[in-house]
Batch of 2 targets.
Target 1
Amino acid sequence: MNYWLIIFGMGFVTFGTRLLPIVLLERIEIPFVIQRALRFVPPAVLSAIILPELVLRDGALDLSLGNARLIAGVIAALVAWRTKNVVLTIAIGMIALWVLSAIVR
Amino acid sequence: MSDLMSMDSARSEFFAGVKAELPILLGVIPFGLIYGVLAINEAHLPPEVAIAMSSIVFAGSSQMIGQQLMGVGTPGIVIVMTTFVVNLRHALYSASTAPYIKHLRPLWKWLLAYLLTDEAYAVSISHYSENDSALTHKHWYFLGAGLALWSTWQLSTIVGVLAGAQVPESWALDFTLALTFIALVVPRLKDRPSIAAAVSAGIVAVIAFNWPYKLGLMLAALVGIVVGMALENRSLRSIASLVDQLPIDPSS
């Protein structure tokens, strides 16, 4: 039964974190400073998720050409920049990763 | 607009959201399977607990850490606090989504907040910030993306728990997550403040990657936001000083 208590507690704090700012910002006119800050949330958070995936291998920095994920990620970024096409970016990125991993190995 | 047209447009937004989420699902499936397998084989959780966690908590990283901590008998309050810290970034997502869903009924807000994961946020916020159409039905897009992710997460967890199935690591399907985020972020880096926010956040995230409880990610996001704003301030000021130097009175 202890397990259930724990997961309901986990669920409660998770949902609370996701709901509270929406509710708090609902009635007030959002201050200009906050509005400007919020504009940077997507590029900041998403690149903070992406970059470690590309440059870290087993926790260590690897900026060499032998790092298949880094090279595939750079290729994907170029495709995204030129085409703005999500599916194409993912397809070319995955193919690049598979081909590079096969070569490097 | 007639009700029928409005329903049509809600439905097409919903399915556009589902469609936009599809590539991410490729990366989510192996993650859900691994969670299920570890919760049973390593943490020895009862199957019904492991499965229920996916709908009650519905947060991949927290569930992964949660099952590990439960497996070694960590006190419940510590696990709950850890979950809170790991999920702090969701407060940023929530604040950033808030202006777009302000007009919705409470039930909608609660539902969308429940579905507000990294994956649903990334896709929905990109759609919201496109200026192609009015806000009227964009929450249906969010719902479509959120439900697509939700059902995939539930199913892959269940398969992991009951069948112990895993996708071979060499397929590297987890990489589709990073690729989707690249596809969503890169086209949006149009001005210097955004680029600076992305670059600085990325660098801090790499440096602080080994910090516990995803705190490095949170710090990286905050640094990115501050750097972006500082740079924007500077360009706002230089525009203001240019206006000041104009020979004519701008107010005339």
Note: The mean pLDDT of chain B is 90.
Target 2
Amino acid sequence: MLSRVAESVFWMSRYIHRAEHTARLVDINLQLLLDLPGALADQWEPLVTITAEQDYFASRYGDATQRNVLEFLVFDNQYPSSIANSLRAARENARTVRDFISAEIWEQVNEFYHFVVSERAPVHAKEDPHGFFARVRNHGHLFSGLVDGTLEHGQGYHFIKLAEYLERADQTSRVLDVKYFLLLPGAEYVGTTLDDVQWAAVLKSASALESYRKRHHRIRPRDIAEYLLLDPDFPRSAAKCVADARGALHAITGNPLDRPRTEPEMVLGRLAADLKFGTIDEVFEVGLHEYIDRLQARLNESGAAVSRAFFQFRA
Amino acid sequence: MPKLDYDPGDFFDEYFGPGNEPRPHVEPLLQRIESLADGELLRRQRTAEAALHRMGITFTVYGDEGGTERIFPFDILPRIVKGSEWRRLEAGLRQRIQALNLFLQDIYSDRRIIKDGVVPEELVRSCKTYRPQCEGLRPPQGIWCHVTGTDLVRDKDGAMYVLEDNLRTPSGVSYVLENRQVLKRTFPYVFKALDVRPVDDYPTRLLETLTQIAPPGVENPTVVLLTPGIYNSAYFEHSFLAGQMGVYLVEGSDLIVRDGFVYMKTTMGPKRVDVVYRRIDDDFLDPLAFRQDSLLGVPGLMEAYRAGRVSLANAPGCGVADDKAVYAYAERIIKYYLAEDAILPNVPTFICAEEKDRDHTLANLDKLVVKSVNESGGYGMLIGPHSTKEQREEFAGKIAANPRNFIAQPTLSLSRVPCLVDGRLEGRHVDLRPYILSGRETYVLPGGLTRVALRKGSLVVNSSQGGGSKDTWVLFEDFPTGEVALPRFQEI
């Protein structure tokens, strides 16, 4: 397929899923804060912190209130990863490849975009945030379903999946990072109900709470970190996402999994091995936040390698 | 049955004949409309618009700051063409495009028509769209213009005239196909009863035509559609057609010329391209051959084309035959090559480069339509009867300064079709652009884009100037045979 088209479907997919993940984060924070007492019930700072845009946020909005953070993450037209901007970018990419994607996918991207940028959207998000974010999430699922069900499962499809897995790995790691920044009233609260509530929220935002409970029953930070980073079966764990990304990549090149030949196959293969054979003890030795930072850097490197190999044509 | 509240006015109306009697081939539709409950027609119009919005059928307006994308305004009342009238139009279009293709081949090789004194050499040489780069070429099958979108208009007397030949990169056919999709849902029972000729196979026919012109010896040609990109006003159409044909939609930067062949850049390396359906003007096609500042084109494309290693549709240089001054000679061109009289007449045209015509034009600016020969899309036009004194003086100056650049035509009283305006039916002026494909055979799409001047009293139908469109129903027969069979519960 055309390099330009491959690049566009790749970014269309990344941006759609970025929008969906941002909605998850915001929604879960809303739910979480309902359970927190008084002074702690207004913690919106962590959501800003993980975007690494604190300076911009402070200069444009000042305090990290619910209203400001919502505006920033959902509608801000200058923050490139706001839901509105992600969808704008997704749609622009989709627009350049309308001949390639199915009409259903295009219509879905279009509707998704219009849902978030409509004049009603800010009111909707304010008056019924859960309903609003649930619909954003569903739009994301619908996109994935239409990709699966209406697009030929050829190279373009695998670029879309590759993008989805890379984005998802990145977002799951961010969810875990939120907890790192969330405050407890004091060290003595570690392991209390309050702590559990926060951890449960982390699981929920990764759609992992039920499956986690089936596996581990009890809320334990160590198990949760292991589940979200290293579990080989949970579809949103970093390990599973990277393994799936690797599968998509090899489907693109046609190389067998044990015969990586291209740069991205090497980079992603090494990362997959580290996640597959790494232990949670090693994660905590490095420090959770530090580990996540490095994971995100390696995911970025994988994306860059994909771009060099397939999108930047060399004669 | 309540009478329709509609005034055809002092025009040729496509729905109503003399004495405001409904034309027989339109009657089933009118009966259906009259049987609808109050507000139902408007509801259907809204539904149709919503469908077009959902499909993302938009065009881009140049020089418009607010939002680059707009929905092409659409009116749900179709223009309906009788079978016999269509057969005549079809024969006329076929004849015309055959002659123009012969003209193009001649102009770029022997120039017999000039030597025989039928068309002045000066006229051809002064065409901005004449391409010396094409001299001596003979494209596959000798066909230069593969896709044509001829503009037809009906004057007050009921006769159809050719207003313009669009031989370069005519657009609009995607609206024809999408409008049909929508309208089939809007009036399913009338549609069925009227026996309307289908238009849906256009993309298949187009692909066939493109495949036929592949360089000799290429078995399974790779066809691409070359677009200027998403900011082009017709981008929707480019992507639509590429999708319908299942061919690659490429931009200039996706193509590369190496060792004299054209390749596209794919994720798996270079892939050979055999046929380029280009929707980029000649000027921008190849910076090495034409405009050097073009970023949209493919350096070296023209050289590969001249060497016969890639085919281009339409061929570069086609514009010389749709120059508005050359247009004036079309009937003579048909006569010269085919020894036949033109089936479809031209609109009488005054060529400002010729003294007598120029004097007549300058003396009658308030009655004539003056057009710049190289502009399209309704730009650079003076409509005499609707003009101000200042505008006329401005054009008089322009004509005096560069007479070759202008032609003039009498102001036609374009025929009208009822449109839904603010919930009521009002007449609006229309033209008709059928599409013709020329490969081994010539194919005329039974239908076409009916463009409507939606502004009250306006004669300008171009989408960039407030125009909209209608579906065009070409009937197999003159009089519909079937009854409109409505379902027992009139839910549709």
Note: Chain B has 15 helices and 23 strands.
